[in-house]
Design goal:
With 203 residues, the chain is α/β, with parallel strands linked by helices. The protein is built from 2 helices and 8 strands, in the order βββββββαβα.
């Protein structure tokens, strides 16, 4: 994660402009388990599944979506574990992020439920779509719930890009290539053919 994002800031009362992506935050409020969004087409370790977004009503009156993590595809697209979470006042911790976006956004219906049905299954929704479904304005960021926090699912949050092991693999490959080229250079230069003697002038 970026330098400076490990400092924990209070989300309640904070201006969104002050927060950089992956900033670690804490927030006091209550979960709204009655209006949850289930994100379709989410993968983890190349396995299909879903992610759960639960509104969290902050003590300052605003509402932020909390990503409680991923769970695997079951016997059907609505075979889900219990999404229940208590609505008692609590403090949560997590990191600031954005809603997931597809590589290519295809126009079409994003919601697969009747307008009054909750939880709502949505496929890569934009914030405006979720706000329309909830009937309220949302905090412009999402909070990725920390792994040690209660009432979550699988939460292996990593910043986008190559994981560290990929960087190490590329470094080893380039080092091996450089070593091979250096070895070939030495071998070829040690076995240079002797130059031919100059032609002798005729007697």
């Amino acid at each position: 994660f970026a330098a400076g994002t490990d400092a924990t800031l209070a989300l309640s009362g904070a201006s969104p402009e002050r927060l950089q992506r992956y900033q670690h935050v804490r927030a006091a409020g209550r979960f709204d388990a009655g209006h949850q969004v289930v994100l379709d087409s989410m993968t983890h370790n190349e396995e299909a599944g879903f992610r759960v977004l639960t509104p969290f009503r902050l003590v300052d009156g605003r509402t932020v979506l909390v990503d409680r993590g991923w769970f695997a595809f079951g016997r059907s697209r609505t075979d889900w574990p219990s999404l229940d979470v208590a609505g008692d006042e609590r403090e949560i911790r997590g990191r600031i992020d954005e809603l997931p976006v597809p590589g290519v956004r295809i126009p079409g219906p994003a919601t697969e439920a009747t307008p009054s049905a909750w939880p709502r299954l949505m496929n890569y929704p934009e914030r405006a779509e979720i706000e329309a479904a909830l009937g309220l304005r949302l905090y412009p960021h999402v909070v990725l719930l920390d792994r040690d926090q209660a009432d979550g699912f699988v939460r292996d949050w990593v910043p986008p890009g190559f994981p560290p092991i990929r960087h190490i693999g590329y470094a080893v490959q380039w080092f091996a290539l450089a070593l091979t080229l250096a070895f070939l250079y030495v071998i070829l230069n040690l076995h240079k053919p002797e130059p031919a003697p100059p032609d002798q002038p005729p007697q």
